[in-house]
Amino acid sequence: MSTVSVAWDDIGGLADAHERFLAGARVETNVRGSVLESWMRSRSEGVEPHRVQLPYASGLTLDDRLMRASAPVLKDLTGVLANVSMAVALCDAQARMVHRYGTGRQLLERLDDINFAPGFDASERVAGTNGVGTALAGRGPIYLAGREHFADCLQPFTCAGAPIRDPLSGRIEAVLDLTCLRGDGDPAMLALVRKAARDIEARLLEQATERERALLAAYRRARRDTCAGGLPQQPPQALPGPGPEGGGLGAIDLAVLREKAEELIASPKRTLDEVVLSGGRVATLLSRQVTGAAGETGTVVEVRVLGGPNLRHVGLTAPAERTQPAPVTVSPLTIPLGPVSAVSRQTGTYPAHPHAAGPPLPQTAAATPVVGTQPRIQAGTDGNGSGPGTADGWVLLVGEPGVGRLAVLARKRLELLHDASVRIGTTLEVTRTAEELVEVAVPRFADLMVVDLPDPVLLGEEPGPLGGDTPLRRVAIGTVRAELPVYGIGDSVEYVPSTPQVRCLETGQSVLEPVLADAEGWVAQDPARFGQALAQGIHSLITVPLRARGTILGVASFYRSEKPAPFEDDDLSLAQELVGRAAICIDNARRYTREHNTALALQRSLLPRGRPEPTAVEVACRYLPAQAGVGGDWFDVIPLSGARVAFVVGDVVGHGLHAAATMGRLRTAVHNFSSLDLQPDELLTQLDDLVGGLDRGEGWAVEPSYQDSGIVGATCLYAVYDQVSRRCTLTRAGHPAPAVVTPDGAVDFVDLPSGPPLGLGGMPFETVELELAEGSQLVLYTDGLIEDRGRDIDIGLDKLRAVLACADRAPEDTCDAVLDALLPSRPSDDVALLVARTHALGPEQVAEWEWPSDPAIVSRSRAAVTKQLAAWGLDQLAFTTELVASELVTNAIRHASGPIRLRLLCDRALICEVSDGSSTSPRLRRARNTDEDGRGLFLIAQFTQHWGTRYTTDGKIIWTEQPLP
User: Fold this and answer.
1) What SS3 class is residue 899?
2) Which of 409, 408, 415 is nearest to 264 (CA)?
3) Which of 644, 590, 599 is nearest to 623 (CA)?
């Protein structure tokens, strides 16, 4: 039972809400959702609350079948309400009142004044929110009191309405309404009208069963008459069952036969069909039209099985008496249910409205009892038509074409839902999921379907409130005719407020427009285009909101043009089921898109930006995320001191934000360790300790409820190339071995010992040192390039070797060739690829001296530097470089031991290096006014761009860099 939305003495709040709604303000309280949706529909139809004009039509009638079913129910209902001032209205499926019953002079007079009487239209599009029109538009029971009505003239009343549906088709056949004055209203009216509607529907179902029995009896009489006319006596047979020898039809065969029989009943133009059964048997189905004694028309389907083993039949004996349900008989009503015309006021009656008098409720005719039959086994008959007592066929199914059509439609709808569950949502792409919905629906359910989504959904974002002012994007369209005038894929669509699509988006409820020609609000979107659509045959529409997890993501619209039957209530339910399933898949794809874009943006921001520009090598690199999302692969090119360069390729196991964030932490750590000029094996040892610390929570106690997000696995390859010596030092931690391509095109995979993955600890990392010819290519990659679910790693390495075997190819071309040959169309893992072609510094770009540790060499070092810079044409840097070399050599003499080496490199910068045999690192400090030393490194830091220290196996090197003029 529904409760009233507002107390009787609190009408002011609802009145204020009604006024705010009419003024265009947002109404969120004091109004039930169903009432607010009805107000929105009324406003979109252009109903004016203060001026309502109801159209009138004469000669309205209801189907005799419906009147026979409703007569006893209305009799009981009016009997219950005999002492209550309440009107009972029975309206057709267009909300036009056909009959009105009831007593209560004041009530009926006031209803007559507002034309709530037989012949007048009470639909929402003309009368606004009311019991009849809202029950029909909302397709469900409704209770309305006072100010909940949209029109001012209806606000003095309380009403409850419920639709009456055909129990077989689900189509709304009529609407039942109870109306009284507002002061006499009670929420129990809703339960009363709902029960009456259900009782009428139950009696309609009983009528269908009686018709089926009558058709079967007519068929039997026809067979008996045929036999009496001189033909051999061949009693009709019932559906075959398993005989004593087990030769009967199996359950699968029976199901197939019944399905084909239903299709025959539903297809009036077909009378014969053949079905191949198990065991090589063939069943022939024949449909016969029959007419019952009372004029019922229907179809009987007979079956005859040919071939295969002998079958025992169940024969029909002569009709035997069997208890049948007593026929329902209703006596004529003996009391008037409507006002009589021309009765004097003195007797307490009043003249009736010219259209108010309802006819007496019709009497329900008693159905003729149908005598059933008891089956018995008829021996000696086989399914091949041999033997005594052979029958032409067996009765398989009896029904009416309309009922058979519904059975076939029900099966097709189940098949459609099954296909939808399999075919919708196969990917995590929003657009593709919408296309899958369209592919399922067209042409099996609709002749034209479109899906419109707002741009935020396509980008993975949460959409805001959708309505008439929200631009949508057409993302999918399916049609049986390409020439239909509709918006195309990618077009921006902004629906006007009167369209069913906007009503659907604003209310969150599906909208059914069986006859589009009558839907003026839809045509108002684009009169020229949509008028042409109507002319080309589009005649029916269903719009369904794409709602998932309480959020409306867009709208799906189904149209019919080729199928002549308009959409019905069952079609609406099917469309809602289809769109509901698709909406969940679209929302999943939207959420995945959001996470994927976030992770990709994070990873892109953590990977190197732009193109590296070291002079030691020519570099090309690629990163491609996996189909399942971005992962933890990364690459880096890090310039080092002494005209050297470091190459890094790493891989963090997993995908998503955690893998991308972990990759960023490791890449930053590698940069920091590289700035210390550590040896490659020492750098991986430090990185291994760092990863182990991250896995252990970095010293923080992990909460029991916190999901562990440690690094479950990471690999890394680190290489350092010196362009002066052309030597490359490599080490790896669980990573694939790199490839070296010589200038003549020979390919070799470096025999580099594979250390354990990062984070395991306890094992040292080994290094390998190679001398690379100038122009060689060093190829570093992650395992996603050579390994796939359908390809072994050895096969991937062989393919990589074959692709790399090409002489004199640029690194960019090498990257393209490798990815084209090895990358699958839908990679399951992300891929990082780095190709570096080596260069070398010529002897003319390097100057080197070695002196003993003697103070006398300081002046010699200054002279040598000045001379070399003059030879390079860098006289502008002579003073600064002479000062730097003098300070570094002096410090080496004072604080170190062993021979002293001075080296100048002319590369992208002027590099000055001084090496000695000490492992003590100098540090920069601010000298006090009284200190006699400590200012040398301070001066060097001021005059140079960079400076630092790196350690060697026999000492250290202090280096400086100055930009070239």
Assistant:
1) coil
2) 408
3) 599
CB 832 within 8 A of CB 634: yes
Containing 513, the helix (H) or strand (E) segment is strand 511-513
CB under 8 Å to 65, separation ≥6 — which residues?
A: 204, 207
* Closest-CA residue to 411 (of 574, 172, 285, 239): 574
Q: Could you tell me the two tokens for 489?
A: 């894929």
SS3 305: strand
State the pTM of this model: 0.60
Hey, what are 588's tokens? 């999943």
d(C-alpha 948, C-alpha 927), whole Å: 19
User: What distance in Å separates the CA atoms of residue 513 and residue 372, rounded to the nearest whole number?
Assistant: 45
**Residue 95 DSSP label:** S
Q: What pLDDT does residue 744 have?
A: 92
If 0-12 CB within 10 Å is exposed, 13-18 middle and 19+ buried, where does residue 577 land? middle
* Radius of gyration for the alpha carbons in the chain, expressed in angstroms and rounded: 45
Read off the tokens for 223. 């067979």
pLDDT along the chain (965 residues), means of 10: 39 76 78 87 87 91 90 92 92 94 88 93 93 91 92 93 85 93 91 93 81 66 55 38 46 79 73 81 82 72 68 34 35 30 31 43 36 34 37 65 65 84 90 94 93 92 84 93 86 89 89 87 86 90 93 94 87 92 93 83 75 78 78 88 92 79 88 91 91 65 50 85 94 94 94 88 88 94 84 87 91 93 81 93 91 89 93 92 91 86 92 89 69 72 89 89 91
Asked whether the beta carbons of 214 and 370 are under 8 A apart, the reply is: yes
900 and 851 in contact (C-beta within 8 Å)? yes
The 3-state secondary structure of 527-574, one letter per residue: HHHHHHHHHCCCCEEEEEEEEECCEEEEEEEEEECCCCCCCCHHHHHH
Handedness of CA 888, 894, 895, 897 (dihedral sign): positive
The single-letter code of the amino acid at 313 is H
CA atoms within 13 A on the CB side of 135: 34
* 380's tokens: 């000696």
Question: What does DSSP assign to residue 363?
Answer: P
Residue located via tokens 């002011």: 12
Structure tokens, 30:
């004091």
Q: Would you tell me how many other CB atoms lie within 10 Å of the CB of residue 64?
A: 10
Round to whole Å and give the CA distance between 568 and 563: 13
Q: Which residues of 276-311 are buried (b: 16+ CB within 10 A; e: fewer)?
A: ebeeebebebbbeebebeeebebbbbbbbbeebeeb
The one-character DSSP state at 279 is G
How far is CA 957 from each of CA 573, 599, 675, 888, 911, rounded to the nearest angstrom? 80, 42, 14, 10, 12
By CB neighbour count within 10 A (0-12 exposed, 13-18 middle, 19+ buried), where does 670 fall? buried
351 near 195, Cβ under 8 Å? Answer: no
Separation between Cα atoms, residue 660 and residue 709, nearest integer Å: 12
Buried b (16+ CB within 10 A) or exposed e, 508-528: ebbbbbbebeebebbbebbee
CB atoms near residue 808 (< 10 Å): 9
**Alpha-carbon separation of residue 50 from 56, 95, 96, 150 (angstroms):** 19, 21, 21, 9
Beta-carbon contacts of 508 under 8 Å, excluding residues fewer than 6 positions away, are 545, 547, 552
Residues linked to residue 722 through DSSP beta bridges, in sequence order: 644, 727
C-beta separation of 674 from 638 below 8 A: yes
Asked if 896 and 946 touch (Cβ cutoff 8 Å), the reply is no
Residues facing residue 301 across a β-bridge: 287, 397
DSSP-assigned beta bridge partners for residue 145:
158
Which residue in 164, 581, 169 sits closest to 409, CA to CA? 169
- The CA distance from 137 to 891, in Å, is 95
In this structure, the number of other CB atoms found within 10 A of the CB of residue 850 comes to 11
DSSP 237: B
